[in-house]
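[job 4471] stage=fold_predict status=RUNNING
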Amino acid sequence: MARIAVIGAGAIGGTLAAWLAQSHDVILCARSPLADLEIETPGGLLRAAPTILTDPARAEPVDWVLATTKTYDCEAAAAWLAGLMGSDTRLAVIQNGVEQRERFPTVSPERLVPVIIDVPAERTAPGRIVQRRDGTILVPEGANGMAFAALFAHTVIDATTTADFTTAAWRKLAINCAGIVNAITLHPAEIAHDEQAAEVMRALVRECIAVGRAEGADMPDDIADQVIEGMRAAHPQSLNSIHADRLAGRRMEVEARNRVIVRLGEKHGISAPLNKALAAILTASA
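[job 4471] inference complete, writing structure tokens
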């Protein structure tokens, strides 16, 4: 049994904390107190009552820290690390985008594990989450990656290692960048069945493909169609996180999901005008 601290009680943090609490000692680091967790999963209701901490000053060293906050909340998440990180503690960064390794510069690279997660989940109220699918986790191969994946051995989440994490991260970004269309239109996954909307999504993904290739990822042309097929196969009312954030009036991860494509594209002399334009539109309309 591992001692695990999960920073962030949102959809992903709450879901992972609930599953891990079935077989590990879990501490959930949150802004506000919670009584417990209830996750509506495809297999039924999952309940958990992890230890809840709201004050970083009360944190003590654990085996693993899972940072699941939004990418723009890394400074707040880092405030927990002084108490949680012991001499052997490892940090898993479970966030959107392709820059997980750069977001916590005070942590030694040898103790940091970047994580790509695909677990569709939506928070309906504090501590109450709907998990749409069992989902997957990918981490780089190696001792740390294997140890992290092993934490999920007794859950429904398929956690595995990959020899090409760069490709895994960029392929997830291809999915995420298309989600800006949902956030702008305020339509869930079902909008992918509209062919005009789907073509806008494909164009966003094609820009991601070009930049991803320049960054060293294996990005075949048909990823654009795969993204649409995946969205059409999803629950029609499924919300991606940027759409859910806009509905809730929260800050959105436009930088990590779309502007990063523009910014890294400029480094390689590759233009990403559609990602740039839709990021500007969404920011202005929020």
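[job 4471] summary: The chain has a mean pLDDT of 96.
[job 4471] exit 0
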